[in-house]
Design brief:
Layout: H1 10-20, H2 45-51, H3 54-65, E1 68-73, E2 76-81, H4 84-91, H5 99-107, H6 117-137, H7 139-154, E3 162-163, H8 164-181, H9 188-204, H10 207-211, H11 213-216, H12 218-242, H13 252-258, H14 263-293, H15 296-310, H16 317-320, H17 324-337, E4 343-346, E5 351-353, E6 356-358, E7 363-366, H18 368-371, H19 392-400, H20 410-429, E8 430-434, E9 442-443, E10 449-450, E11 455-460
Parallel strand pairs: 2-7
Antiparallel strand pairs: 1-2, 3-11, 4-7, 5-6, 8-11, 9-10
Length: 462
């Protein structure tokens, strides 16, 4: 499916556990700088837990040992790459299976194997057309849902605090479920039911598998399995309904049904896309608005572009391409928030990065959160500055990391489009304002979020 996209933290360690224990152990670090195991059984897992997240652990590790570092998960060697230069060296000969699909399929305990290169290319094209067609067919719906949220916010007094995370998750759930799975989710109760099951499954992916607590808790395990079963039941029902029939509304699942995929592939791919798209869209919308509230200049410039491109007309799919500064805002949001801080690949054959040999069947992490804050690549890396993406070379670097261009994952592309429509509606009518004294702390998981609710206020533009 996607080529880079991706995500982990402690969650990623579940992938390590699920994948690497299938291969022979090696205690040879091949001379790569790094740290020795803290414990024989757990390796450096205690250090990761102490750091707070895998991302924060990697930040410290790269600061201490350089762009190519090693550590241990259990008895398994893990190598992390933390600059654009070393990532380039590793990416070119290692474009194999997508790390996001591998990870989520492993965590969901799906068993279907990835196809060969031609099959993977065909499926990538299928997903790209699925995103394009579902967005075009449901554009009026997306605009309607955005305007409903605008009307809700317009009804608030200027001083009222708006729970941004809650509203963005609700908006994303409504948008994604209808565009991916169809008219069943026009019913708010169906959306609420899906959101509950989605939350149960997503919260257990990685966390419960990593520490073994899911298998130790009969109650939690049953809740997780019931939620996953209900999500699968919904998807199977929709897939069956869409087969061999034509609908005026084209949804993402239609593209999978019309492709040369078997029922299990359709189920797995629609599950992964549904789970990931909801959360990525919600968090991209949340962080974009958060950053806009902290920069009056950026918000003013975005408003001026929207006004110039759209005038008094509503946004259209064709006009999205003209909102160049809006795309820069979203790219800078992904970079500044470190939206997806870690990606992973299994080293299929022995490889070399810089002067170091990476043994076969080593897990190689792409420390994207480290790379996105590297001052040698991003001047003033902690500053939210969409203008940096005026530079074509900066966009090329971003594309290399999988956040734009041909390597952009379908879920992120989907989220970019949805967020663009929402911002075009909100910023045209509202000033988005921060709450004085609020400090938003970051939680680095599969997708980066705020630790607690993020509050904003809004005021009408006149």
């Amino acid at each position: 499916m996607l080529d880079f996209a991706i995500f982990a933290v402690t969650f990623l360690l579940a992938l390590v556990a699920a994948v690497l224990y299938l291969y022979p152990a090696s205690r040879q670090a091949a001379g790569i700088p790094g740290i020795t195991p803290t414990e024989e059984k757990d390796g450096n897992l205690p250090d990761i837990v102490k750091s707070g997240s895998l991302h924060e652990f990697l930040v410290n590790l790269h600061e201490g040992y350089g762009p190519v570092v090693s550590f241990w998960f259990g008895r398994r060697l893990v190598v992390s790459l933390g600059t654009v230069d070393v990532l380039k060296q590793h990416i070119n000969p290692n474009k194999t299976s997508d790390p996001f699909e591998t990870m989520l399929k492993s965590l969901l305990r799906y068993q279907s194997d990835g196809g060969n290169v031609n099959e993977n290319h065909m499926r990538k094209k299928l997903y790209e057309s699925g995103v394009t067609n579902s967005l075009q067919s449901n554009f009026a719906l997306l605009l309607k849902l955005s305007e409903e949220l605008l009307d809700k916010w317009l009804s608030y007094p200027d001083s009222q605090h708006v729970p941004l995370c809650q509203h963005m998750l609700g908006f994303a759930m409504k948008s994604v479920t209808q565009m991916v799975m169809g008219s069943t989710f026009e019913d708010d109760q169906e959306v609420i039911h899906f959101q509950k099951n989605h939350g149960t499954v997503w919260s257990e992916i990685g966390k419960g598998f990593l520490d073994g607590s899911l298998d130790k808790s009969i109650t939690r395990k049953k809740q997780y399995e019931d939620a996953l079963m209900q999500l699968e039941y919904i998807l199977k029902k929709i897939i069956k309904e869409r087969k061999g029939r034509n609908f005026s509304q084209h949804i993402f699942i239609d593209s999978l049904v019309q492709g040369n995929l078997n029922d299990q592939q359709i189920l797995e791919d629609s599950m992964i896309f549904s789970l990931a798209s909801c959360i990525i869209t919600a968090k991209l919308c949340t962080w974009a608005i958060c950053f806009l509230t902290t920069s009056e200049e950026v918000q003013k410039k975005l408003y001026e572009e929207i006004d110039q491109v759209l005038g008094k007309d509503p946004i259209t799919p064709e006009k999205i391409e003209q909102l160049r500064y809006c795309r820069q805002v979203l790219c800078e949001t992904v970079r500044t928030a470190k939206l997806t801080p870690v990606s992973a690949r299994l080293q299929d054959i022995e490889g070399k990065v810089d002067k170091f040999i990476i043994p076969r069947e080593t897990l190689v992490l792409y420390a994207l959160g480290v790379v996105l804050q590297d001052p040698s690549t991003w001047p003033l890396p902690h500053k939210f500055d969409p203008d940096r993406f005026d530079d074509e070379s900066v966009m090329k670097t971003f594309s290399l990391l999988g956040f734009s261009g041909t390597q952009e994952c379908p879920e992120l592309r989907f989220a970019y489009m949805v967020t663009t429509v929402l911002l075009s509606v909100l910023v045209r009518k509202l000033h988005l304002l921060s709450v004085e004294g609020q400090v938003i702390e970051t939680k680095y998981e599969l997708v980066t979020s705020s630790k607690e609710e993020a509050w904003i206020t809004v005021s009408k533009r006149y």
